[in-house]
Write a structure and sequence with these properties.
alpha/beta, Acetoin utilization protein AcuC, acetoin catabolism, 8-stranded parallel beta sheet, 11 helices, Arginase, Chain A
Amino acid sequence: MSGRARLMWDEAVTGYDFGSGHPMDPVRLALTRALVEAFELTGSGPGRVPVVAARAAGESTLRLVHRPDYIDAVRRASADPKSADGGYGLGTEDDPAFAGMHEVSALIAGQSVGAAEAVWHGEVEHAVNFAGGLHHAMPGAASGFCVYNDPALAIARLLELGARRVAYVDVDVHHGDGVQAAFWDDPRVLTISLHEHPRTLFPQTGWPEETGGEAAEGGAVNVALPAGTGDEGWLRAFHAVVPQLLAAFRPEVLVTQHGADTHFEDPLAHLAVSLDAQRAVAEACHELAHEHADGRWVALGGGGYAVVDVVPRTWTHLVALAAGAPIAPETETPQEWRHEVYRRARQSAPLRMTDGRTPRWRDFDEGYDPADRLDQAILATRRAVFPSHGLLA
């Protein structure tokens, strides 16, 4: 192992821009990068990560997940946005076509694939691409602000390189439907998604009964959380499902998606999770990678539409944890970053790296409440998939 961690970054990823007024504002990436830099997390030496720009994913790599006709449609829409084909999910309200869309989407995918390659080859233990995590894109269609599915492409590349078991854990508020679909029938991949219940949120999938195809029964795991779930419930659900399944599955690599849109300030969803709980889950993923995957950890971004107050702080914590230099929650945000926030967004920046919460949860083994909707959701998932892994629900 030649290094602890690596940050995948190319300034050009901020060109992933659906236009003014779209929730996926690329300022969230720029401000995250600026906050990482303000905390002096990049460079060489202990507690710092080198910054590496990988090549854009090429045609053969994209075809590991996406259909050739879809890639061709993205190329056409990228060259002439007015020609976007709605049949491929392009030119829609969620996924407006824009000039250069193929190039920047392939670049983001390339960073995640590069992260996976670096981890698999032992160049680093951990690799982070917070511009990635675009988990809704399907093999033949754009969906939910996602053009190319970089988490699925990273996993597919790991399998191509010889990985026999890859676990994917998705804690975005939306169901990781595109990654689940890509590996529905592949027993080498375990996909776990914790998300707001499909009754109340896009993409209306991710029911506990979705457990994988005939060749991979139990390979898809879905925890559908009631709207309004906060820190205690979110952490209870995570710890009631994820560690047990990873221990049983024994992944060689852990890929995680850290969408920040579970936060109580996020405008597009209905969970009530704090920055502090998001940090706690990132920390747990780091520990689980060491416990079950020999430290091999590919960590990606995802959704998150409180683009100033939440996303930069959450993903900076993620980078710091990967670097082995965790930032204490009570730490003040650097003054130069606050100035950058005002310059770019014309609003005040958060003053500390915390929401002032102390995340706590009760282990599921400490008791099941049959009247509690969260406990009902946890038990539904455990009953649906635990037996396939030799576990008791």
